[in-house]
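Subject: sequence -> structure tokens, single chain

Hey, anyone have a minute? Need the predicted structure for the following. Not urgent.
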Amino acid sequence: MNDGEIVRECRELVLREVGTALESVADAETEAFMAALERAETIFCLGVGRVGLAVSAMVKRLNHLGLSAYMVGDLSEPAATDKDLLVIASGSGESAIPVAIAAVAGGKGVPIAYIGSNMNSRVARMAAVKVRIPVGTKLALPDEVPSGQIMSSLFEQSVLLYGDIVALAYSRRKGLDLHALWRRHANLE
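Reply:
Had a minute. Here:
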């Protein structure tokens, strides 16, 4: 097999897996997540590692939509209250930082939305809203969709695209003019 064939095979694998993963997300879970975003005065988001990069893109897009969103730990992050929402993306729901931040948020009465694969995790048990992307995690649970990709790439890709799907659905629900959203795009670049 030459390099071109390998690349095509890998591209087809990634696109097929991401499509399968996102088609597996329950519509009712997405509707509940969108409602929670809409109710929140401020949205705080957390993901670690490559998941954090995907979640950062979601924060950016939520701000483009006119919502107030921050990454947990950003220098400009305001105080969270019970009128806000903490969105945690973690495939396993058992990573140390997401578990610790969820516990702090819970102690302050901040509602939590969990995007992950493990609905029996500590983060999932603390969350009021749960979105399951049923892909393989480091826990290798029996009901996870297997992946031929490196480590948790499928989860990370799915979180990035799920954020865009939610943003587009929100914009359509609100009847937003997509071109007009450019006025909220960074302009000092």
